Amino acid sequence: MFDLSGKKAIITGGGSGIGKAISLLFGQQGAEVHLLELNEAAASSVVNEIQATGATAFSHAVDVSNQKEVLAVIRAIGRVDILVNNAGIAHVGNLENCLEEDFERVYRINVKGAYNALFSVIPLMKKQQRGVILNLASIAAQVGITDRFAYSMSKGAIAAMTLSVARDYISDGIRCNSISPARVHTPFVDGFIAKNYPGKEEEMFAKLAASQPIGRMAKPEEIAKLALYLCSDEANFITGNDYPIDGGFIKLNN
Ligand SMILES: NC(=O)c1ccc[n+]([C@@H]2O[C@H](COP(=O)([O-])OP(=O)(O)OC[C@H]3O[C@@H](n4cnc5c(N)ncnc54)[C@H](O)[C@@H]3O)[C@@H](O)[C@H]2O)c1
């Protein structure tokens, strides 16, 4: 079960947090893992960790918002069985606190970055008549979250792109789904707490942890296990869906 032997998997933003956990687990399950990552040092360290277990992994220094770079790297990889569109950045603020450059930065990385990887991978998967795509959406695409204007916009776009790609390429043997985590304890969360709530880090962390009815944030490894299921052949009947993994956030917060 959940064997990825013989499969090539691309994980964007695989150098940290959820992407790192997915890269490690996919490597452990036999995939040849390719990290497309801005932070070369982080990506190399994950590749070393994967290789230490005897699995195969490569890091590619790529800014996902740059279509030329993404296309060149993915074409060179040649065959892609699994794409995980994971690279993303946070932004805290309501509409009035979201300046044009904030909006454009979040759009460029979270939305255009995913589009660039899809644009590069779909022709290969069509040729193969087979492939699986998993996009990292968020609970922010499904419910109104305070002070997440630009971020929610970007994750709403991920949800819509997931449906569009799933629909258009269903007859090419390509599956496309998304995962919507609530808060996951990664450098992403630590980073936006430190940046936006200086001096109140502990209080904010506790508040964010308590906002999941289950009483804590998720661990990246818990998200990776759902990603593994959805990208494995065991999930061959699943496409065009979003999977919340949220400690009860969406349905039990009342
Ligand atoms: N952590 C959470 O609470 C949470 C919740 C829901 C959804 N998500 C989503 O999950 C994904 C991963 O989040 P995380 O918490 O693991 O974040 P993280 O910050 O720990 O890791 C993100 C990785 O993406 C890389 N990256 C950023 N911009 C890039 C670019 N332009 N090109 C290539 N790589 C780039 C970073 O270098 C980093 O290694 C994101 O899409 C995020 O929106 C996170």
From TrEMBL:
Q: Which CDD domains match?
A: SDR_c
Q: Which UniProt keywords apply?
A: Oxidoreductase
Q: Extract the InterPro entries matched here.
A: NAD(P)-bd_dom_sf (IPR036291), Sc_DH/Rdtase_CS (IPR020904), SDR_DHRS6-like (IPR051122), SDR_fam (IPR002347)
Family that this chain belongs to = Belongs to the short-chain dehydrogenases/reductases (SDR) family.
Q: Would you tell me the protein name for this molecule?
A: SDR family oxidoreductase
What species does this protein belong to?
A: Olivibacter ginsenosidimutans
Lineage of the species this protein comes from = Bacteria, Pseudomonadati, Bacteroidota, Sphingobacteriia, Sphingobacteriales
